[in-house]
TrEMBL record:
Family per record: Belongs to the mitochondrial carrier (TC 2.A.29) family.
PANTHER family tied to this protein: S-ADENOSYLMETHIONINE MITOCHONDRIAL CARRIER PROTEIN
Main location: mitochondrion
Database matches in SUPFAM superfamilies: Mitochondrial carrier
Protein name: S-adenosylmethionine mitochondrial carrier protein
Length: 265
């Protein structure tokens, strides 16, 4: 196995997967963010300007997804067991690494999505730095990790399990890209629905613009006391839809790109 070639494949395929899903389904993500905003859906922009903030995703999506898959598959060379626990731990660790790139672009994106002003992405970035310094770009990092680890713990073992079972059923060594994508769509939809409360807390922490840091626990308590338990499932429909369709696009783009790279190196 050529490790350098494999790393290049993971980087290219991960970048293609991240860009494909984030750019194609961006409006659904915007609607989900506005539904979860403390301002309410209409005051956050409603259905207007649903592509606001997309530039931030274009910058961060490719390297974030590339770093995720590189870490995930490199982990398979270390932890070689084919088990649900192995898949879950590899995916969780990969998310922690990928979020080093993903969180700064995510916070800029979500503030753009939930703002009715015409602030540019650079203006939003300057305001974050002015108010909270460099660490302001990582506000919500721990909350994002609290969401992504359970999500990956659920999604990737189910995806790997479904792929293995489907391949055995079809009498093949592995699934075709579109078959893997269907498995990813099922796994992503289920994981998205289950982890929606964590996503709501993460969104609120990232949208909070005060000087004082808002922790996940304090934000959870504030939401529960002021708005009730039902609010934790705000945006569950667009989030599940986004992850269902997005899971298909994401895993298809990854598997197809990975297969394509083998033709060149």
């Amino acid at each position: 196995m050529d490790s350098h070639a494999d790393i290049c494949r993971w980087l290219i395929s991960g970048a293609a997967a991240g860009l494909s899903v984030d750019l194609s389904l961006y409006p659904i993500d915007t609607i989900k963010t506005r539904l979860q905003s403390s301002q309410g859906f209409i005051k956050s922009g409603g259905f207007k300007n649903v592509y606001r903030g997309m530039g931030s995703v274009a910058v961060g999506s490719a390297p974030g997804a590339a770093l995720f898959f590189t870490t995930y598959y490199a982990g398979k060379q270390v932890l070689k067991t084919e088990s649900a626990w192995g898949d879950a731990f590899r995916a969780s660790f990969a998310e922690m690494i990928a979020c080093l790139i993903r969180v700064p672009t995510e916070i800029i994106k979500q503030r753009a999505q939930a703002s009715t002003s015409q602030k540019s992405l650079s203006m939003i970035a300057r305001n974050i730095y002015k108010t909270n310094g460099f660490l302001g770009f990582y506000r919500g990092y721990s909350t994002t990790i609290m969401r992504e680890i359970p999500f990956s713990f659920i999604e990737f073992p189910i995806w790997e399990f479904l792929k293995r079972k489907l391949a055995v059923y079809l009498g093949r060594d592995k699934c075709q890209p579109f078959e893997s994508a269907v498995c990813g769509s099922i796994a992503g939809s289920f994981a998205a629905a289950v982890t929606t409360p964590l996503d709501v807390v993460k969104t609120r922490v990232m949208l909070y613009e005060g000087v004082k840091h808002a922790s996940a626990i304090s934000m959870f308590t504030k939401i529960y006391q002021n708005e009730g338990i039902a609010i934790f499932f705000s945006g569950i429909v667009p989030r599940t839809l986004w992850m269902g369709i997005g899971g298909y696009i994401f895993f298809f783009a990854y598997e197809f790109s990975l297969q394509t790279t083998h033709r060149f190196f």
